[in-house]
Amino acid sequence: MKTINKLDIRNMIRAVLLESLDTGLVVEGSRSNLEITVLSREFVNRIKSFLQRRPGNPDLEVNIAITPENSTIFKRLPNLVLIHFRIDTGMWAPYSMEAYHDEENKEIFIGISLSRQFRMKTMNFLVGDIKNALAHEIQHSFQEEDYEDPSFKVNKDTDNEYNVYATLRDVKNYHSDHVELEAYIKGLHRTAKFYKKPLVIVIDDHLKTMYDHHSQDPEFTGSKSDLRRYFFVELKQQLISYARKMAPMAIFSGPAQQSDRKSRYVK
């Protein structure tokens, strides 16, 4: 009788799981992985150059435009025409990040602000967040619909655009929309692979960061206990449900240690 080893069993389970998935979702090992790797390496090189130049130029700001004319990655990213990457100096230690996908103009923006206290030993955390942001926003470019966030506002005096999450309903409407849940899992899966950690631990880390972000937001007027219950019970269950469809083998695989870091909030 042939002996079946653990690897054979794992592959058999994986095949059954993938056959049963909703084919409309992005699953493990699929599109855009190579592009994310290429882009994150380019961004890291630019960040290193920025850090070398900043001491003699304290107001330095770097803007990089990646387009079909200067990069071949767009052959597999047909719904994008521009990836804009900005580096500047910020006040939040060691760094802060913002990221968004502009569906109308087919653009992705990644902005990173490095504090004066940023050191190269922090680079590993920053790379994980860059991969998360890229995967998250690229996933939005593949989605057939973009979420119209009811909390989106425009300051009439300055024309600055911003989001207001004043109530728990505002928070839920945004984070629990299916296009965001898909993008969260796509990004967090990349983070889990980068750190070689179970996806469920990376999800927990990200939920803590999102909860801190909203609970400290002066615009939020709702109950913080209800906000906590939403993030750590309701939203966590929703994310794990999507993870079972999109990255089933990653949920509990990897070292079983807890993370000692906080990832930055990604829109």
Q: What's the quick description here?
A:
With 267 residues, this protein is α+β, with helices and mostly antiparallel strands. It is 45% helix and 13% strand.
Textual characterization of the structure:
The chain is 45% helix and 13% strand. By secondary structure, it is α+β, with helices and mostly antiparallel strands. The protein has two domains: 31-146, no CATH class; 149-267, no CATH class. Strand 3 (95-102) and strand 4 (107-114) form a beta hairpin. The N and C termini lie far apart (54 Å). The model is unreliable at 12-29, 153-160 and 255-267 (pLDDT under 50).
Highlighted features:
267 residues; 2 domains; two-stranded antiparallel sheet; 6 strands; globular; disordered C terminus
Secondary structure class reads: alpha+beta
Query: Strand-and-helix sequence, N→C?
Result: HHEEEEHEEHHHH
Q: How many beta-strand elements?
A: 6
Count of domain modules? 2
- Into which percentage range does the β-strand content fall? 5-15%
Poorly predicted runs: 12-29, 153-160, 255-267
Mean pLDDT: 82
Question: Quick one: overall form?
Answer: globular
From the alpha carbons, calculate the radius of gyration and give it in angstroms. 19 Å
Helix run count: 7
Sheet with the most strands: spatial strand order: 1-2-4-3
Through-space gap between termini:
54 Å
Query: Main β-sheet, in a few words?
Result: 4 strands, mixed
What portion of residues is helical?
40-55%
